[in-house]
């Protein structure tokens, strides 16, 4: 006679088979192969309250192998989250709570948007970092309100991705002993058996990273899995943990089990036979027995009691730590955390003496008063603090011995840096920022895209943003990068033109709560713009574009520019006469969100003669100059030479603006 755990696992497998069969798409392999892992986690070990899915001391579960989403949806449904059987029946359908891959904010219990393999591993590392910081900031000797674990289920594909390698190395080096990885080791990838593409010794690999390794050879034995999990959970080694669980992919459908055909939906053609073999009613799809319902109802009661005990601890902590409590509760983890632009920008002193400095230098100056005002703002750099200039002064590096440090040394791991920042943002307590050279955004792009998709308030401080990099040459001179980043939906890209616009850029980025912001900053010094006051320039950034220099007679032509090229537009305007308007466009995305009336006031449609200049590819500027305008830019890769020589050789000069404008005015 089957045990209750066996019955529950069979019913969980049945939900996956039925959902994938109904949708006629999806992945059966992991939901069927790792079912016993799911039972141990959701039926026994994980600490959560399904009625309070954002409980700050919950164990966080991340499904890095997001293609196996029915694993997560099935167990969330069974364990009492707000995910009904009707939601399961709507798997992969329009506007359902059960999309093809898990999406943050769409479904209670989904802790990160996963699917691109390896991202969830790095997100889990970010969660673990954030949980360590939270414990260090808010726990006291009398009241430890943060004691949770971060658990991540990953597969062969996740561990083959470079981002996972980077994140795992970071986790081991920084002794994230609150992290438990579970490797669904089924020896299969999508196209072939795993032996065709990997041969490393996984146990030795993780030991070399600084992990404790627990091998579970009987991956369908709930007692063996539970024992290994308990060993990992109770470890006092000070190391992150990994369970290597040997499983049979698509277990329950023998026609495809243990083969690459088990990965997707190929097994559904044998779904009815599989359900009968599992002991499920042949005539009742999506079957969940009363025994299973009662089991999880009892677990929910136990978990609710645990939550209530923690809540009493939290109230006692708050009574003696009111300032800590207020700080903690004013964060996205509690549905708050909105930063006011005006309050923030007022904390930044205006720059005196009209300094002609690089916007990366201005950014470093701006960051310090902001960091003093926002104590939960943290930052990092991919081995480039000396160049990106975003080190938060007065705070140590974050490390195992300094868990309240605010500066992360990510090493040369740009991809993991941005994915770890996503994990910190998902957690919702700390506000993450990170820096590298703009050209290396290509290493970061998958994580940036997911931050935009998940509406995470992450701040990217990317410097050396044009051919002004100079002698390092075209490998390090971004020409297409700014425009390509502007194409990512829900990512604000801001390219400030001087120190005051830089102040506005930081304030705009940090006052945004519904998506990420990327600051594109210069290596080279820029002319300080004296044609508008600091207030106008700072608040101009908040509108995306603004009139920096207004015409003093009838408007004849508009010059538009961003970042380091605004100075050329201003200087050209002064040579062209009184009918010239200069519009600074630090952010196309923000400007396009403004009202039609505001956009018309800045770039009136009646004035067809317009010239735009930017040290990059030209295509996106056509929207702003129209069919009759001219765009000056760089539609080729750069060259290795001193920065001023490169700009002159490639035609990014005020003389080029004057010439283009004169040609339009003569027509």
Low-confidence stretches: none
Q: Helix/strand/pairing class, anyone?
A: alpha/beta
Q: Biggest sheet: strands side by side, in what order?
A: 7-6-8-9-11-10
What is Rg? 28 Å
- Rounded mean pLDDT is 97
The profile of the biggest β sheet is: 6 strands, parallel
Please state the overall shape, judged from the principal axes of the Cα atoms.
elongated
Number of helical regions: 27
**How many strands appear in the DSSP assignment?**
16
Strand content: 5-15%
- Helical fraction: 40-55%
Distance between the termini: 91 Å
Describe the structure.
It is a single chain. It is built from 27 helices and 16 strands. The protein is elongated, with a radius of gyration of 28 Å. α25 links the parallel β15 and β16. 42% of the residues lie in helices and 11% in strands. α1 crosses α3. The model has no long low-confidence stretch (mean pLDDT 97). The strands form three sheets. A six-stranded parallel sheet has the order 7-6-8-9-11-10, sandwiched between helices. Strands 1-2-3-5-4 form a five-stranded parallel sheet, with helices on both faces. A five-stranded mixed sheet has the order 12-14-13-15-16. The protein is α/β, with parallel strands linked by helices.
